[in-house]
Amino acid sequence: MDAERISIAQTCLNAAHDGSLSFPEIVGRLIAAGFEGYTVDYRRDSQTFYLPDGDSTVLAMPAHAGTIGAAFDANEIERLVRWAQSGGADYSYQAFSAEAKTAGCAGYIVSFLGRRVVYFGRTAETHVEVFAG
User: Fold this and answer.
1) What is the dihedral of CA 68, 73, 76, 77, to 10 degrees?
2) Radius of gyration (C-alpha) of the chain in whole angstroms
3) Cα gap 62→97, rounded to integer Å
């Protein structure tokens, strides 16, 4: 993958963690750069960004507090997503991620083509959120 796309991916990853860009802004920048989606892996503290031609890049992300719960709580994941969408002053991606891990979320896949996010647990249980185009 070329250095410019890797830089855009890194900027978006950093912006999620420092709150400088919203999820829709991050998605817009990644789509404009030609990405078709990404995966967040809380077990490896990494994020993988994918291009349509099969190329990808894996970037380290800051570790999030806590461990991944054994049971996947889809209702709690849905509550956390609504919290993130609310734009409240008390929201942070770090807190979201720590609480999602406690709720058994091992990671999630964001598909720009499918306009959805699939949150998954250690048991491969899932919760799907569709986002606006």
Assistant:
1) 70
2) 14
3) 11
The tokens of 16 are what?
A: 């999620």
Distance CA 11, CA 2 (A): 15
Measured N-to-C along each axis, helices 3-18 and 93-102 cross at an angle, to the nearest 10 degrees, of 80
β-pair partners for 92:
none
Within a 10 A sphere around the Cβ of 49, how many other Cβ atoms? 25
Dump pLDDT digits (tens) for 82-95.
Answer: 998 888 888 999 99
Give the Å distances, CA to CA, from 46 to 43, 83, 100. 8, 23, 15
| pTM score of the predicted model | 0.93
